[in-house]
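Lab notebook page, bench 4
Experiment: in silico fold of construct C2
Operator: M.H.
Input chain length: 113 residues
Purpose: comparison with the prior construct
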Amino acid sequence: QLQLVESGGGLGQPGGSLRLSCVASRFTLSSYHIGWFRQAPGKEREGVSCISSSGGTIYYTDSVKGRFTISRDNRKNTVYLQLNDLKLEDTAVYYCNVRGDVWGQGTQVTVSS
């Protein structure tokens, strides 16, 4: 059974930074494209960023372009999402996903002054 575990969420201030991690277990992450999604209270889950298996193709949703950076370290079986210049509207539970059907449990990001 494929498993993903997110970590790194917490309380951030506007303009601050957080780094999220997504660690895969029981499978080799390097074979998969990975996506980060988020779900804010009362809203639908939305795609934030994704990275191809090689790392050569990266996508960001418009609202995070220039602020978030996705990366992967296949040796560590981990994908990262660096969140910079945090905004109040970045508050959400962040999830990583592979294959469209495998989700982690999520990590809460709260941006507040």
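Observations: The mean pLDDT is 95. The CA atoms of residues 16 and 86 lie 5 Å apart.
Next step: discuss at group meeting.
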